[in-house]
Amino acid sequence: MKGEQFQAVRGMNDVIPGVSEQWAFLEEEIRQWLRAYAYREVRFPVVEPTALFVRSIGTATDIVEKEMYSFVDSLNGEALTLRPEGTASCARLVIQHHLLYDGPQRLWYMGPMFRHERPQKGRYRQFHQCGVEAMGFAGPEVDAELILMTARLWQRLGLKEVFLHLNTIGSSATRARYRTRLQTYFSAHTDRLDEDSRRRLGTNPLRILDSKNPAMTDLIENAPRLMDDLDEESRIHFEKLQRLLQQNGVEYQIDTRLVRGLDYYNATVFEWMTPLLGAQSTICGGGRYDGLLEQLGGKPAPACGFALGMERLLALLEQQPHWAQRFGVHPEVYVMHQHQEAWALCVAETLRSSGLAVHFHAGGGTFKSQIKRADASGAGWAIILGEEEAAHQKVSLKPLRGQGDQLTLDVMEAIQQIKSSE
Ligand code: ATP
Ligand code: MG
């Protein structure tokens, strides 16, 4: 009986050759970029206690209300969740390992996140983030550093048309006052609120501002602004940050409706947006979360960070001319052989020991059919090992691109010839 064919889970992507090289390129660029800022990598599990996310991200948020992959471990009854983001885990890790005892920490992570969203271009159920977190710094110079950092990455990757949207959401006291003002305003317009927003009116009216429902755009546009009733400390922080950005030539736009979709933020919030990706316009989002470490049981410590969406970055990179062509991967040498398997394997290993990338022919066939494979492999050279070569303990070296004659050489001479042509 023919076996059932499986498909990857909806909204979760495979990465196949041709694309995997693009991922590796982006990841390496990111690693180098982070090194230049002296941030250090952390790795934490893909699964965490559900309560970690509920307490940090907030109950009345899209993520916690409807996007988390939560389950009960049937073996011990633990409530677990596939991580929907990294900041909460990173804060947990910092607290658990007492990292702040050694002073402030600049950290980063990269890896898959999981959210049960409606899959569409740029929005997946398993997606990848690179997150950068500066913990123990009150800022605003660290806020500025993080923003300058992102700007440098776009520059490094040659991305154009990415724009910085900046806002401050003040202290928790400011937001508590603002909540009341928003409740008053939206309560007068309940007929124009969608179901989610009506529910949030009581619990978390700031979230209404984050709604992506186009029918509510006008209503949100005319809502009272937090900025008009900002606390003094946040105002000074925000002004300093803006000065630092201006003095460093970073352009931005103040967006008073920008609140971010997670509850742990305060003061600075920002997003980098692009008009080139349709509805999924944010490639990077972040801000300050001064209360989070204490909220998760750690000593109070200020913190600031951001996460960038790797799939969206790759989608932007794909729009660059000749992007995909850069990722053909070719061996340097193709080893052809007939009736000489053991020797051919040995020669291939010797070539690799000298640092060459070698495609070993497998599956037999005539030299005529092998040479077709060798050409298709994109290798620059073929090594041919037949009875003739074996008898003389020599190899034949054939250039596959350009002109030049086939040569009969010792293995070491052949290696030299290949390497000197690089
Ligand atoms: P969005 O408003 O697009 O839903 P978000 O505010 O929920 O984004 P964050 O939690 O701030 O996103 O995550 C940071 C970045 O991760 C986003 O700016 C985006 O680039 C990326 N991202 C978030 N959710 C997804 C997803 N489901 N698929 C792909 N990328 C995502
Ligand atoms: Mg979202």
Automatic annotation (TrEMBL):
Q: Name one GO biological process term.
A: histidyl-tRNA aminoacylation
- What does UniProt give as GO cellular component? cytoplasm
Which keywords describe this protein according to UniProt?
Aminoacyl-tRNA synthetase, ATP-binding, Cytoplasm, Ligase, Nucleotide-binding, Protein biosynthesis
- What PROSITE patterns does its record include? AA_TRNA_LIGASE_II
What InterPro entries does the database record attribute to this sequence? Answer: aa-tRNA-synth_II (IPR006195), aa-tRNA-synth_II/BPL/LPL (IPR045864), Anticodon-bd (IPR004154), Anticodon-bd_dom_sf (IPR036621), His-tRNA-ligase (IPR015807), HisRS-like_core (IPR041715), HisRS/HisZ (IPR004516), HisRS_anticodon (IPR033656)
Q: Catalytic activity annotated for this protein?
A: tRNA(His) + L-histidine + ATP = L-histidyl-tRNA(His) + AMP + diphosphate + H(+)
Please state the Enzyme Commission number of this protein: 6.1.1.21
Which first-to-last residue range defines the signal peptide?
A: none
Q: Which residues bind L-histidine?
A: E85, G86, T87, R115, Q129, E133, R260, Y264, Y265
This entry's Gene Ontology molecular function terms read: ATP binding; histidine-tRNA ligase activity
Which residue intervals define the domain Aminoacyl-transfer RNA synthetases class-II family profile in the entry?
A: 1-331
Give the chief site where it resides: cytoplasm
Q: Family assignment?
A: Belongs to the class-II aminoacyl-tRNA synthetase family.
Per its UniProt record, what NCBIfam families does this chain match?
Answer: hisS (TIGR00442)
Note the PANTHER family from the entry: HISTIDINE--TRNA LIGASE, MITOCHONDRIAL-RELATED, HISTIDYL-TRNA SYNTHETASE
State the protein's name.
Answer: Histidine--tRNA ligase
Source species of the chain:
Ferrovum myxofaciens
UniProt lists the gene as: hisS
